[in-house]
């Protein structure tokens, strides 16, 4: 650990987040968000999804640019591997949610991060999706996330940052708890 | 609807999938997969995740290329919007999983698809992630998926394809049912 007079800066504007928290406490209707994705089938198991608009703070919002994602199945599933598999993309969502939280919590606790990386492993028995054994679930049997973090903090402080990120993570909640999904055909 | 002598081709090799199903029924240990992601914190809420290797069919496997994903928070959260938000990335995982399933099921039922697109909407009260109201969950309150499908099939046949895709979807299962996630710091 080094002592420094430089203010802690992980690049997260905690003051703005605390202001937003105060503003939304006073106006909870502005806290109602809708996140969206559009997906177009390309060929075989290959699709392309785009992320552009969302609703929040009482109005329509737009990202600076449109984000595009190719998804596919790998060659060992007789597919063309034009993109990550959908379940790998879910791991990316979890990894990025927890990691953004680590940066925000560390900033709020005035702890300087130097490097943060995470390895995610999701185990799956594909007898589920192949319909071989109806007792096997389609999704992951479990996910393990392992963080390597270098920061101006003790091992216990680092563990506490990760625990707090987990507690406030949207994607951690989505994966660990049931969410209702309705699927309709227009 | 048109009648044609051209064989149905949605680009999914169903014969190979049925062979795999037979092979894995005989050798269930080969059905044990592990999907992986690596995530590196960049700055603020911005991270970059990569997908490269996975384990399955009894050995280490590798994608043809490394897939890379930037994630960030939008400007209205005082962030720099260098990528989609983690929860939008989860919607991409769900969209691409269900869409690959639609193509595979249609192929298996010998129904020619012409176009498939999906719109996903995930509602979220961000009072949860901001810690304003502990009764509000961090994740989506619900997700709605709406398909527009043009195919050589009746409306009922199209609905049945989507329902079967849902039934076998790994990501639909991950989101609608609880999955255990352990988070450790090395």
What would you note in describing this structure?
The structure is a homodimer of 186-residue chains. Chain A is an alpha+beta fold and 186 residues long. Helices cover 30% and strands 34% of the residues of chain A. The first copy, chain A, has helices spanning 14-26, 86-108, 155-167, 170-176; strands at 32-43, 46-56, 59-71, 113-125, 142-151, 181-185. A three-stranded antiparallel sheet of chain A has the order 1-2-3, with no helix packed on it. Chain A has a two-stranded antiparallel ribbon with strand order 4-5. In chain A, a hairpin with a 2-residue loop joins strand 2 and strand 3. In chain A, helix 2 packs across helix 3 and helix 2 (86-108) crosses helix 4. The model of chain A has no long low-confidence stretch (mean pLDDT 95). Chains A and B meet through helix 1, strand 1, strand 2, strand 3 and helix 2 of A and helix 1, strand 1, strand 2, strand 3 and helix 2 of B. Strand 4 of chain A pairs antiparallel with strand 1 (32-43) of chain B, so a sheet runs across the interface.
Could you name the key traits of this structure?
globular; three-stranded antiparallel β-sheet; 4 helices; 186 residues; homodimer; alpha+beta; two-stranded antiparallel sheet
